[in-house]
Design a protein that fits this description.
Layout (H helix, E strand, L loop, with lengths): L6 H10 L9 E8 L5 E8 L4 E8 L6 E5 L16 E2 L11 H10 L13 E5 L5 E12 L8 E13 L12 E4 L7 H7 L7 E6 L5 E5 L12 E2 L8 E10 L2 E3 L5 E5 L6 E4 H13 L6 E3 L9 E3 L7 H7 L4 E4 L5 E4 L5 E3 L5 E3 L1 E4 L4 E3 L1 H4 L2 E6 L4 E6 L17
Length: about 400
Amino acid sequence: MAAGWPPAISLLLLLALLLPVTASSMVLPLFGNVYPVGHFYVAVGIGEPVKPYFLHIDTGSNLTWVECHADGGSCNKCNTVPHPLYRATQNKRVPCADARCASLHQDVGKPKNCGAAPQTCNYEIQFLEGSSSRGMLVHDKFSILPKSNAHAADIAFGCGYEQVEASGRNEKVQVDGVLGLGRGSIDLVSQLKQLKVIAKNTIGHCLSYKGGGFLIIGKDMSTFPLKKWAPMAPGQPRYYSPGRATLHLDARSIGGADPVEVILDSGSTYTYLPNALHKQLVPVLQATLRKSLQVVKDPSLPGELCWKRPEKFRSVDDLKKEFKPVMSFNFGNEVTMAIPPENYLVVTKQGNACFGIFAHNAKYIILGDITMQGLLVIYDNDRKQLGWVRADCNKPPKSISAITSRI
């Protein structure tokens, strides 16, 4: 494990200090990609003296947490992460009687579990894609700008000492934990607003097809040039949902006229459809493809649908040449999300094109990172509305006018 910042990222982190930051909002660079990293993440500092951590941005999680050593000992079940595991001292534990402990358990929908130690606020959280984390709630100085105590705030977050991956095995990962950006009261943005570090309970992210992008926290997003906003679904207190939508492939309806609830989740690398909807979509898509494309197995995404052509796929531009159908989610009131091929396919190391929309057993749709690439997605918690707009995600906008596309 690295003791500090990897050399390839050090210069970028220095540039992060130069990004537009005011007393009420901030813009942070993102690192990572859909494939092969599988995460988009920010670099932050925690503790005094500050130590570096990479956190996966996750709008589907209310809790920010890092993998850590439990009770001063070793981690019970941790992944291999980029930096030394966080260690929480006794005075950093959030007591079970603390209001933040009650907020955490209200957010995760479970009663408080204080365990054997009366001063420990324990938790267990389940993520949408099947993984889980157990740990205790702690608090420490959290520097949203890396390698500096500037703009640091004392934030409650999770010390996760037992991770269970969806694959059933612990893995080598490129992040140390999760930056919780969900709708709950314990998420990072809510805490920063309460501490007056930012003025608005808003988030915006832009994920680049080339990897990286940027994250906006605390800005007044209502003035961005979006012609349509979708209200947040009132019956979904923990996740960001613009409501129910129907799925289309070009002009053809998939799944009929019955709409399905959609969740925007930057913590999911790929997009997931209910089994029945996915089963209807695949043959319709297959029927549109050229005969030169052959279905193959790819070790990068075992069990998923992949295609090869006589010459290897090398880039997003190659995808556009071979795959033409555009998917779309129609939310009603003329609010739609168009999904071109580069938002539902990945190019693997083997030079194949693999379908990045998977089936799952749930009754809702999860829109993950692959589908949100090339979009500035806005989560306006103050006005309870969501919006998205095509944008250049390769560099943060210097002004609102720099983003000129529309829904």
